[in-house]
Specification:
Layout (H helix, E strand, L loop, with lengths): L6 H102 L5 H6 L4
Length: 123
């Protein structure tokens, strides 16, 4: 089997094979670039999620501190209200004592009857 090979056909096939190889290399390069872009995007997303997790942890901690401060403040307000109630009660007691003592003082003062004074004076 002696077949003759057409050199132009061989040349055309070689050119097509080379062009196909170049296209495949180009596609592989583009795929590698896409792969690297996706890896970079995933890495940036992971960093952003970690930052958000840290920020959420900080906000949760701050909320806990605020709750504790609020609870402490409520306790202080309740204590102050109790003290105010006690002071009002003590003030009322003192006022009752003052009123009682004033009444006692008025009842113990000698009463001057001016009508009796005129009877004792000779005119």
């Amino acid at each position: 089997m002696n077949a003759t090979i057409d050199p132009d056909l061989v040349k055309t096939v070689q050119q097509d094979v080379n062009a196909l190889k170049n296209d495949i290399d180009k596609m592989a390069f583009e795929e590698e670039v896409n792969k690297e872009s996706v890896k970079k995007a995933l890495h940036e997303s992971q960093l952003a999620l970690e930052e958000l997790r840290d920020r959420v942890a900080i906000v949760e901690h701050e909320q806990e501190v605020i709750k504790q401060d609020q609870s402490s403040l409520c306790d202080k307000v309740n204590t102050a209200q109790d003290q105010i109630s006690e002071l009002k009660s003590e003030q009322e007691d003192v006022q009752r004592r003052v009123t009682y003592l004033e009444d006692q003082q008025k009842s113990n003062q000698p009463q001057i009857n001016y009508g009796n004074l005129n009877n004792g004076i000779a005119v």
